[in-house]
Amino acid sequence: MKTHNNRVDIKVVIVGNMSVGKTSLIQRFIHENFKENMNETIGAAFSAKELTSMSGSKRIVGIWDTAGTERYRSMVKMFYRDAKAAIVCFDITNKSSWEGLRSWISELREVEENCKVYICGTKKDLVDEGISEREVPLEKCNEYARGIQVKLLETSSKTGENVDELFQSIVDECVLDESIIAKSSLQLAENDKRRMCC
Amino acid sequence: MTPKPSDVEKTDFVTATMSIFLAVSPTARLHTRCRSLNQMDRVGLKNPDSGLNVPLQQRRHNLARSQVNSSEYFSVAFEIDGQDASGHEFLLAAKGTSLAEALGPVCNRRGIELSNVEVMLEQYKTPLPILTTDTAWLGGKHISLREKDSSESRGNKLFSHPSRKTSRSCKGRTSFFSVSTEEGNVTSDTLPTESKSKSSRQRWSGLFGNSKDSKMEMLVEKLNNYSKFGIPQVKRNHDEDIEESLYKLEDDWREIVSKKRVVSDIECQQQAAIWELVQTEVAYIHTLKLVTDLFLACLISLQKVNLLLDIDKSRLFSNIEEISSCNFTLWSKYLLPMLACARENATLLDPNIILEAFLKCEELFGPYVVYCSEQSECQKYCREKTGSNELFTAYLAWCETQKDCHRLRLLEMLVKPMQRLTKYSLLLKAILKHTTLPKQKENIELMIERIDSFVNNVNTTLKQKEDIESLRNIMARIESYDVVETKDEDLEKLIKPHNELDLQKPMPGCNPLHKRQLIAEADLKLKDHNNSKVY
């Protein structure tokens, strides 16, 4: 597949309940920093970064922050279109954000069935440093993620733990998918040829 | 994800169309190139060493006038390596002349590629879009040309366009269709131009139907012209001063506030939050302008020469122009006065000034209701056309590769208004968090309440639309039964409309305002008692 030089190759949407740290996650990934009491509430609604996949090909990842739209479910849906991947966030120190997870995922699958889903448990540092109590046990998360066959990562936007890994695995899987599609189209072309010979 | 045959087909189709229009371009490109060279010669010959480098026509017009007012010109400085930095140029500022058109001949002469530079207005930080900026309001101003790459290497690598880096040779201006241009140029040096274009035309005419071929050629030529001379703009009723103010925003609110004033920490945080509202609003207006002045204006202008007539503007862009003008109003009537007040007294920004805007947001943002509810249709339309119409695909590709787009695609820009609308509340909440004055606090709370309820209304409108859609789907699937069976055709005609199941009708015994809603949808299983089969 040809890469486009100047546009986003992989669209990723970030969803999840209010104040689970969606914008902070993006801030960490794009600018590699973290702002305590973030003044920039909204940052960029759209941002992009170039990543190199495992196989060495470069892809531009475009990230859509849905912050602010959480309550307006009919409006959020508009942002899902064409998304290759979605990061569904919940706050591991907040049980209700975990309970919201299911509805986000089902809604996503309804609108963009081919969109890959990644679950991201945020604010890991709060638990690691003993500042807050963990409300969602890791085993429960893993079990759920296995059940619906999606990848789960616990991240900390403050320390940056697992953030790059999360986006890296998205790029790797998307590139892998592209090569599968390219291969099958090649096969299709070959089949056509054969038919023409006959 | 399993590969679907349709996906594969689509990819193949896109690659095919891409190669088609890349292949077509040598001929078209050759024409435009020749023309631009001629023009340059003309300008160069007739005005040797003239300080005023204006197109011939305008110059004549100019000389005819007895007096020349300095405000009709703008000066240009070249802050580029290898260029004489002291040599300023003076260019005519005229209504209907785009920046690209005005700068074109000068840059050509100096061997500068317009696509490689950023045009900055005085000391301000936002580059001017060269294709869509009308030079009229630049009269009496000073602009400078800066190398785009140098500023990028400092900051984000994100928006660098790799394609542009290769074209430093600065011969002509690389157009969007540059890939094939290079070939065309090389061979045209050795071959007589005419025979070259003739032979290539013959080659391509064999490949597709004549009408399509010539249309694509025309489109390519038009677009190349736009790259050189800018896109003709639809008449706008915006005030030029206000347009200018969009490029004049300070980098930080601290630049406005007097140095003598002591700013407390909490005030600092509040100002930063207000500044974010202002700054993001300006960026948003620029995006809207891009959609209207680049995408929409380009389409309108193409349709004037009978290209892309099958594209329905309103189905693609909805009422984006109205959206643009409501944010222009928000800017000119509320945000700008707030800035002006602070600038004048060198004090802090006062959020009370914008209260009124949000108090009547229903009225101010009215067009958003229509826009948001039509958005999903617009997206569908755009996707459909991209797949089926190669001229449209080429048009979109050209627009989206303009540097002002910053890699965003039209579809992504079209959802911006929805995104923006939901952010006002967040921005205001951030301001509220750092506000201590009781009066201000009260006002901001009021603003949040109003905008929240407005966005809620928009969401409800969307939800209702979805509901109606799902009810219609069900209605289409449920076969109505015949209440009365009759052989009489007339009677049947009379009865038939009453036989249909209409789920949108009010429910019997309920308030007409209560509408049916889809709660759950699943297969219904019936168990047969006699042989215990499940249907």
UniProtKB/TrEMBL annotation, chain A:
Keywords per UniProt: Nucleotide-binding
Superkingdom to which the source organism belongs: Eukaryota
One term of GO molecular function: GTPase activity
InterPro entries in alphabetical order: P-loop_NTPase (IPR027417), Small_GTP-bd (IPR005225), Small_GTPase (IPR001806)
The keyword Nucleotide-binding appears for this protein: yes
Regions annotated as coiled coil: none
Signal peptide from the UniProt entry: none
One Pfam family this sequence matches: Ras
Name by which UniProt lists this protein: Uncharacterized protein
Family: Belongs to the small GTPase superfamily. Rab family.
Automatic annotation (TrEMBL), chain B:
SUPFAM superfamilies with a match to the protein in the record: DBL homology domain (DH-domain) (SSF48065)
Alphabetical list of InterPro entries matching this protein: DBL_dom_sf, DH_dom, PKHG5/7
GO cellular component: a single term: plasma membrane
Annotated segments matching region Disordered: 148-172
Gene3D superfamilies in the cross-refs: Dbl homology (DH) domain
GO process annotations (BP): endothelial cell migration; Rho protein signal transduction
Residues annotated as domain DH: 269-461
GO MF annotations in UniProt: guanyl-nucleotide exchange factor activity
Pfam families referenced in this protein's UniProt entry, alphabetically: RhoGEF
Name of the protein: DH domain-containing protein
